[in-house]
Amino acid sequence: MTKVTLTVNGRSMSGEAEGRTLLVSFLREELGLTGTHVGCDTSQCGACVVHVDGKAMKSCTVLAQDVNGASVTTIEGMANEDGSLGVVQQAFQDHHGLQCGFCTPGMVMSSAALLAENPKPSEAEIRHYLEGNICRCTGYHNIVKAVLAASGQDVSTLGVAAE
Asked: 27, 81, 86, 138 — which has fewest CB within 10 A?
C-alpha cells in the first residue's frame, strides 16, 4: 500500500492505495466522495470525469498513485462556498439537463472544463466536446441548452432552424 495525498476540492486529503487502485476508486472508497460515478470501467462513458490540476480527466483511466500531490476537483467541489449549486450545476437544474442523473456528475465536470477553455462555445462545439460522455436518458438537447445557459448565451433559439 502507498500513501496518496491529494488536494481534493481545496482540502488536503490522504489515504492508502494499492498500486492498481484507480483514482475513481480511491475517491469513492478511500475518501468517501461518491459523487464521481463508475459507469463502464472502460473509459467510454465519462461518468467518472474529475479535474486534475485543472484538466478534465476520466478518473477510471489513471492510478491514484500517479496523481499523488495533485489538485483534484470532484462534483462535490463544484458547489458554491455557501453550499448552493454552482453555475453549471444550476444551469443543468434550470434547463432539465439531467434525467436519471447517473451521467450528470461527469457531464457537469466536462461542461465546466469546456467553459474554462471556451467561455462562449457554439452548440456544435458543445456537442463535440461532450462526445466522450454518454447519456442514455436526455437525448442531449437539454444538456447542450444547460451549457449554453451556463455560458450566459441565449438558449431560446436552440434547435430552431434558420429560415
From this structure: 81
